[in-house]
Amino acid sequence: MKRLILMLALLAAPAFAVEPDEVLADPALEQRARELSKGLRCLVCRNESIDESNAPLARDLRLLVRERLTEGDSDTEAVDFIVARYGEFVLLKPTHGGANWILWGAGPLMLLLAGLSGVFYLRGRSRAAAPQDQGLSREEAAALEQILKK
What we know:
The chain is an all-alpha fold. It has a domain of about 60 residues: Orthogonal Bundle (Helicase, Ruva Protein, domain 3), CATH 1.10.8.640. About 60% of the residues lie in helices and about 0% in strands. It has 6 helices and no strands. Helix 2 packs across helix 3 and helix 3 packs across helix 4.
């Protein structure tokens, strides 16, 4: 029974991040705020949304989102305000435009280059002549004989 309670508490842990004093009275605005919060990164926790994080900075960001929505901002205006203040890193899913194309394309490009390098390397090895064992020269055989006698 204790294990079941513990598992349920752990599964519900992300729901505890938004505190009761943060919740807006208007359910529609609250739903919009929760959706926006799911797409914003906690700057302390890194890969956790501000909706799930218990960090004080995440709380401040949640309050800021709710403040912007109550002032009448649209969803994009509220997100743009936060991005302008904290940078594009605050987005859990960054945009696909501008300099981000380099980041989005670098991984597949490096994989392609590594694959091509491997193919050319293996082709070159298969075409290379096998080393021939010519044995020892007379001088080398005499030097080896001297070493083995000692």
